[in-house]
Structure formats: C-alpha cells, structure tokens
Amino acid sequence: MHVPDGFIDAPVSLATGALAAAAVATALRGARRELDDRAAPLAGLVAAFVFAVQMLNFPVAAGTSGHLLGGALAAILVGPYTAVLCISVVLLMQGILFADGGLTALGVNITDMGVVTTLVAYGTFRALLVLLPRRRPSVTAASFVAALVSVPAAACAFTLLYALGGTTDVSLGKVFTAMVGVHVLIGVGEAAITALTVGAVLAVRPDLVHGARGLVRPLELRTSPGSPPAPEPVPARTPAPVRRSARRVWAAGLVTALVCAGGVSYYASTSPDGLEKVAHDKGLDSRTEEHAAKGSPLADYQVKDVSDARISGGLAGVIGVGATLAAGTGVFLVVRRRRAHAPAPAAEAPAAGSL
C-alpha cells in the first residue's frame, strides 16, 4: 500500500507530513518507556523483519497481491510507540534506497501504514485481551484479529486522504469499495503472518512479547483442607532476578529475515498489490510522478548491473535488511540512552510465573 508521488496533492501531502512528524516525535518520547532490557535488543530486528516480510507479496484474487503492513506485528511485539518508529524506519529505507513509496508521499505512508495500522491494531488487541481468558492462546487469537482489522482500516484511511487531496476525478464510492474489498483479503494474510510470528515468540520467550505483559499469573501455594497454615517465612535477602539473554531469539529472527529477503522473495507474487491494482483499474495513477530515487542502485529491489534476477533481488533484499537493521538499531539505541538518563520511574512489583 505504498502511495507513490502524484496520488495526493501538495497541501494534503504537507499536512500528512506534519502529522507524521508529530506522531514520530510522540513515539520517540513514548518509546523511552517501552524500550527496556527486553524490548530494546529486538526493536531494530522487528523493523528489519517487517522490511523482509514486506518483500513477500502473496496472491489474493483476480491478479492482485498483498504484503504485510506490519503495524500490528510490531505493536504487539515491542509496543505501539516503538512500532510507529519501526514502520517509519522501514518506509524511509524503502523510499530512499529502493524507490518504493513516494518521497513527497512519505508523510501519507507513515500516517497510513505506520500510525493508523498501529493505533487500530493495538487498540483492538488490548480490547480483546480484556474479554478473552488470560492465556497464551488468547494473545495469539487477539493478534490475528487485530492484524486483520488494521489492514482495511488503512484502506479506509487512504480513501479519506484521497477524498481530501486526490489528484484525479474518480468516484470515491468506487475507490472505497475496491480498496476495502481487496484489503480485507490482504488482511487475512496479514493476520496469519502476525499470529504465526507472535505465537512463535510466545512459545519460546513470552517475556519478550510486549502485548503479553501483565497477563502473567502469580504462583500460589496450595495446601490441603485442614492443614496447618504455612509458617511465616524468614526474612532473607531477595536474590537479583536472572536476566535471560535474547541472543537466540535475535539470531533466529535475523536469519529468518535474511532468508525471506534474500531467497524466498524471488518466489513472491509479481502481481500488483492492492493499491496498485485499484489505482490502475480506477484511474488513480494517471498523474503518478517519477520517483526521485529512481536512479538508486537498488531501485525496484534489484542491484544495478547484476544481470541475474535471482542474485540481484536476493542481494538487494539482504542489503535492505542490513540497512534497516542498522538504521533501526541506531534510532533505538539513542532512545534507550535517553531513557537511561531520564529519572527512574516508580518501581513496579515483579510478577512471577508465566503465561
């Protein structure tokens, strides 16, 4: 759903650019609370993983494909504020390096794919967790529904932006129907990818899933009826909690991202994605402008001067994963450092047990 240059006029593009900048500034402040010892090492990886999986277009219907947007996945894994930053980094790398998504439309894309999807998905996710049993399957199920809802919500947001600043005279009713219809189908793929990824992390390290925090149940000492009360515990020095390294999860995630971008992406669907298909069928693309980064050596996810398409695309994917990981990690290290220098918040009571 990367909006190219020329779809939205200058005033609305500028307005969404200002909105996106405000959202990123707010996210930078909010991410300080989310990027603790568990989330900080994974935030850059989540951005790189989203970049990689976005290269895997999957067929949906009638010559149309879809790809992960990633707002729901990032919000559930590392928190909503950090998720906005993750998706913003991905979109910036795609626009500058790969000529994917217009540079003048960067504000539109961050607002639509970064802010709207994250807010809708995380709000839906938290609401469902209130209603569902406090168990691991509930987190996975809520992830599925939240991701499913977030994609047509982004399609609705695009239609609204097009109604305000579209550059062609097209029936908005037809645009809305086509966009929502195809993105409901794409949402099913988004939901499946999100639920599978969240479920995989939950299975090995539930403490690393931001959306699962607060669902841990404390251990209870059970005694048989009529047994004497447990003796008063002798005060003792509480041992420091053992910190479990996230290196294995980080390494597995990085390998998966590299395999997806460097190898599996070659087999991705070549059909136009939902927005491209609707734009072509309804005439939204009649005023599309050339991308400012069309001369990039990585434009269109191909390495310039490498003739073999498989090798060229694979190298571009690997470079993209590396660049996104480096940029994302750099941003989150700065945010994490500012958190370390900020006044310490009131200590929270540690929760025992596991999901």
Tell me about this structure:
There is one protein chain. Helix content is 60%, strand content 2%. It has ten helices and two strands. It has a two-stranded antiparallel sheet. Helix 1 packs across helix 5, helix 1 (10-34) crosses helix 10 and helix 4 (80-98) packs antiparallel against helix 5. The longest helix has 33 residues, at 172-204. The protein is globular. The model is unreliable at 347-354 (pLDDT under 50).
The tally of helices reads 10
Per DSSP E runs of 2 or more residues, the count of β-strands stands at: 2
Measured between the Cα atoms of the first and last residue, the distance is: 35 Å
Could you spell the SSE succession in H and E letters? Answer: HHEEHHHHHHHH
The mean pLDDT is 89
Indicate the structural class.
mainly alpha
State the helical fraction: 55-70%
Percent in strands = under 5%
Name the poorly predicted regions: 347-354
Largest sheet: 2 strands, antiparallel
Global geometry = globular
State the main characteristics.
single chain, 355 residues, mainly alpha, two-stranded antiparallel ribbon, 10 helices, 60% helix, globular, disordered C terminus
SSE map:
Elements (H helix, E strand, L loop, with lengths): L9 H25 L5 H15 L3 E4 L2 E3 L4 H8 L1 H19 L7 H26 L4 H30 L6 H33 L42 H16 L11 H9 L26 H33 L14
Antiparallel strand pairs: 1-2
Brief sketch in words of this structure:
The protein is mainly α. It is 60% helix and 2% strand. The two termini are 35 Å apart.
